[in-house]
Write a structure and sequence with these properties.
The chain is α+β, with helices and mostly antiparallel strands and about 290 residues long. The chain is built from eight helices and eleven strands. The chain has four domains: about 5-75, Arc Repressor Mutant, subunit A (Orthogonal Bundle), CATH 1.10.10; about 85-120; about 140-210, SH3 type barrels, CATH 2.30.30; about 235-285. It is elongated and about 85 Å long.
């Protein structure tokens, strides 16, 4: 029995028993085409499912008297979930983005869920809008994903854009993240002895070592609502006056203020942790 089969059955059990209070276990097992022992295991698992809070008043509850089952609290899943059009579209977009992540494990599960949802809401299998993460080499993603799965140390040759340097890093991988279409590795860097985020598209080389990685719990859930960049306490406020050809800066980098000067020029204020990076940005814009 696959996990998918069991999950589908668990989602069915609550509405099934709600419609049949006092249903004998053996008769229910025959209906569901499983053994009575398997049904008992499923019901024991349902006792641990419910709403956030997970207290006695939040979890699914039932009584089993004389081998007959009656649901006494359904935790809101008395009927199958029905999505609104907006909710379904948002979920389709998220699944399409997830399916496009290079090296994704269990991609077939994502694609099956996407196909089912698209068929249910009548969306075209050919998306009108393509949602894809920034380019990451497939082999890099496979190496990083493999090291995470096997709990191994990674050796990286990594480009740091802020300092315009390439360095070799040895890291204990923690987890992969996808932020605004860009894949990151959250890892413990042994050189800096601190937790760091590494963009996969800036890895020139990734090598999985035979050494087992040390276990590091994430220091906290990253907050990416305003992007990945976190200005230092002593960051310098840089003010740029740019023309139409460099207007992209305001869309690509997190900015403090953006305003028009009344002509075709824009005044952009942004924080920089490294003035060398800011100088290279200006020089790259040309005259």
């Amino acid at each position: 029995m696959s996990p998918d089969d069991r999950l589908s059955r668990l989602l069915l059990l609550v509405p099934y028993f709600l419609a049949r209070p006092g249903m004998p276990l053996l008769e229910a097992a025959n209906d569901l085409e499983i053994s009575e022992a398997q049904l008992r295991e499923d019901l024991q698992l349902l006792f641990l499912c419910g709403l956030p809070g997970y207290g006695p008043g939040d979890l699914i509850d039932m009584t089993i008297v004389d081998n007959a089952v009656t649901i006494t609290y359904d935790a809101g899943i008395s009927r199958p979930l029905r999505l609104t059009g907006d909710e379904a579209t948002a979920l389709v977009v998220a699944l399409r983005a997830l399916a496009d992540v290079p090296g994704l494990s269990a991609k077939d599960v994502v694609l099956r869920a996407l196909a089912t949802l698209e068929g249910a809401v009548g969306l075209s299998a050919t998306p009108m809008v393509s949602v894809a993460p920034s380019h990451t080499d497939e082999s890099t993603m496979q190496v990083v994903s493999g090291a995470l799965e096997r709990g191994r140390v990674l050796r990286l040759r990594y480009y740091t854009a802020g300092r315009d340097v390439i360095s070799d890093r040895t890291v204990d991988p923690i987890r992969l993240l996808l932020v605004s279409g860009t894949a990151y590795l959250q890892a413990w860097c042994r050189g800096t002895e601190a937790e760091r985020l590494f963009r996969l598209d800036r890895m020139e080389r990734a090598e999985e070592l035979t050494e087992l990685a040390a276990c590091h719990e994430p220091t906290g859930q990253p907050r990416f609502s305003e992007g990945v960049f976190a200005p230092a306490a002593d960051a310098t406020l840089v003010r740029l006056r740019v023309g139409p050809a460099s207007r992209w800066i305001a869309e690509y980098y997190p900015c403090e203020h953006v305003r028009s000067d009344g002509t075709d020029r824009w005044v952009i204020s942004l924080l920089a942790n490294n003035l060398g990076w800011a100088r290279r940005l200006v020089m790259g814009c040309g005259p």
